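Action item from last week, closing it out:
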Amino acid sequence: MSDTSAVKALTFDVFGTVVDWRGSIARDLGAFGRKKGLNVDWAEFTDEWRAAYRPTLNRVIAGELPWARLDDLHRGVLDRLLRQFKIAGLSEAEKDYVNKVWHRLDPWPDSVPGLTRLKKKFLIATLSNGNVALLANMAKRAGLPWDCVLSGELFKAYKRDPKVYVGACDMLGLKPPEVMMVAAHGDDLDAARRQGMKTGYVPRPGEYAPGREPGVKIEGGYDVEAGDFLDLAAKLGAQSS
């Protein structure tokens, strides 16, 4: 573990790091599908939706697609998936409900207690590609105790664009070495570290279905590596009382 004594704030990746997107969406849409009488493999549907996430963001970053909020990018993928899985007859309101399943994701069991401990010592904020409304709605429903919600939307950019990390530190009124990026994804941490931020790695081995993990090369050697958020709090000296 590196020296983290200068750290005053923690910024968190959200999808996969704080919340269980795969289990949450499969459960939520499974219940929706049963009410609608839809015979769909919702776990596969969820995996396909998420698989389009990074390629779609990369097209925005490369300028191939115009800037759009993540809700709108999700909706574009959803429309394609409805055709692919032969799901017909949904009203516009029902499609909007399905698309906003990303607002209704459940936290990992350690997320709320771990964040609550960390909040006692540090300013804690999201730093996510999710748009502000999505992140705020998610936090309200799940009881995530953020001090503030930071999003790529504020900078009209998506991680791993440097301006997201630099912009977040600036908004917090801190220098990059005073801010730790916490994520389950090494490529996110690598990008933050290149901008001078400290890094905290918290793996989430249950995030993806077996065999669906993205094959992204990561650099490793992060400032702190923890088993979960409670372990991260302990390692950063955020006491339980």
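Closing note: The longest strand covers residues 123-128.
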